[in-house]
Design a protein that fits this description.
Blueprint (H helix, E strand, L loop, with lengths): L10 H10 L8 H4 L1 E2 L3 H7 L6 H7 L3 E2 L16 H12 L2
Parallel strand pairs: 1-2
Length: about 90
Amino acid sequence: MKKNKKRLILPDQDIINGLYSKAIKDIDELIYNFDARFYYYYKLTNKMKVDMDFVINHTAIIHFCGKKKPWLENYTGKFHSLYKHYEKLANKL
Protein backbone atom coordinates (compact mmCIF):
# COMPACT_ATOMS: atom_id res chain seq x y z
CA MET A 1 0.00 0.00 0.00
CA LYS A 2 2.73 2.48 0.92
CA LYS A 3 4.56 1.75 -2.33
CA ASN A 4 1.48 2.32 -4.53
CA LYS A 5 -0.52 4.86 -2.52
CA LYS A 6 -0.26 7.52 -5.21
CA ARG A 7 -2.12 5.23 -7.62
CA LEU A 8 -4.96 4.42 -5.23
CA ILE A 9 -8.10 6.41 -5.92
CA LEU A 10 -10.20 4.99 -3.08
CA PRO A 11 -7.55 3.43 -0.80
CA ASP A 12 -9.84 1.34 1.42
CA GLN A 13 -11.84 -0.08 -1.49
CA ASP A 14 -8.83 -0.47 -3.76
CA ILE A 15 -6.94 -2.51 -1.17
CA ILE A 16 -9.93 -4.74 -0.39
CA ASN A 17 -10.54 -5.30 -4.10
CA GLY A 18 -6.86 -5.99 -4.71
CA LEU A 19 -6.61 -8.54 -1.93
CA TYR A 20 -9.98 -10.24 -2.18
CA SER A 21 -11.38 -9.59 -5.66
CA LYS A 22 -11.54 -13.28 -6.53
CA ALA A 23 -13.55 -14.03 -3.37
CA ILE A 24 -16.01 -11.13 -3.65
CA LYS A 25 -19.51 -12.14 -4.72
CA ASP A 26 -21.95 -9.93 -6.59
CA ILE A 27 -25.01 -8.78 -4.67
CA ASP A 28 -28.12 -6.94 -5.76
CA GLU A 29 -27.23 -3.26 -5.61
CA LEU A 30 -30.90 -2.26 -5.42
CA ILE A 31 -31.03 -3.96 -2.03
CA TYR A 32 -27.54 -3.69 -0.55
CA ASN A 33 -25.93 -0.64 -2.16
CA PHE A 34 -28.65 1.58 -3.60
CA ASP A 35 -26.85 4.62 -5.00
CA ALA A 36 -29.17 7.57 -4.36
CA ARG A 37 -27.66 9.45 -7.33
CA PHE A 38 -29.02 6.77 -9.68
CA TYR A 39 -32.64 6.71 -8.50
CA TYR A 40 -34.08 7.74 -11.87
CA TYR A 41 -31.70 5.44 -13.74
CA TYR A 42 -32.90 2.51 -11.59
CA LYS A 43 -36.50 3.49 -12.35
CA LEU A 44 -35.88 3.48 -16.09
CA THR A 45 -33.84 0.29 -16.23
CA ASN A 46 -36.19 -1.69 -14.00
CA LYS A 47 -39.44 -0.97 -15.83
CA MET A 48 -40.55 1.60 -13.24
CA LYS A 49 -40.70 -0.93 -10.40
CA VAL A 50 -38.19 1.16 -8.46
CA ASP A 51 -40.09 3.91 -6.70
CA MET A 52 -39.98 5.19 -3.13
CA ASP A 53 -42.21 2.32 -1.95
CA PHE A 54 -39.77 -0.15 -3.48
CA VAL A 55 -36.84 1.54 -1.73
CA ILE A 56 -38.63 1.58 1.63
CA ASN A 57 -39.73 -2.06 1.39
CA HIS A 58 -36.69 -3.68 -0.25
CA THR A 59 -33.54 -1.63 0.21
CA ALA A 60 -31.27 -2.35 3.17
CA ILE A 61 -28.55 0.22 2.41
CA ILE A 62 -28.86 3.55 0.60
CA HIS A 63 -25.45 4.84 -0.42
CA PHE A 64 -25.21 8.64 -0.56
CA CYS A 65 -22.20 8.94 -2.85
CA GLY A 66 -20.86 12.25 -4.01
CA LYS A 67 -21.33 15.66 -2.46
CA LYS A 68 -25.09 15.63 -1.89
CA LYS A 69 -25.75 14.26 1.60
CA PRO A 70 -29.18 14.36 3.31
CA TRP A 71 -27.59 15.21 6.67
CA LEU A 72 -26.22 18.45 5.22
CA GLU A 73 -28.32 21.59 5.59
CA ASN A 74 -28.88 22.39 1.90
CA TYR A 75 -29.80 18.89 0.70
CA THR A 76 -32.92 18.93 -1.48
CA GLY A 77 -32.75 15.45 -2.98
CA LYS A 78 -35.39 12.78 -3.35
CA PHE A 79 -34.39 11.04 -0.11
CA HIS A 80 -34.61 13.96 2.31
CA SER A 81 -37.85 12.88 4.00
CA LEU A 82 -36.84 9.23 4.18
CA TYR A 83 -33.50 10.16 5.72
CA LYS A 84 -35.19 12.46 8.26
CA HIS A 85 -37.61 9.65 9.19
CA TYR A 86 -34.76 7.24 9.97
CA GLU A 87 -32.75 9.97 11.68
CA LYS A 88 -35.67 10.54 14.03
CA LEU A 89 -36.00 6.81 14.75
CA ALA A 90 -32.27 6.53 15.44
CA ASN A 91 -32.37 9.45 17.85
CA LYS A 92 -35.00 7.63 19.91
CA LEU A 93 -32.63 4.73 20.62
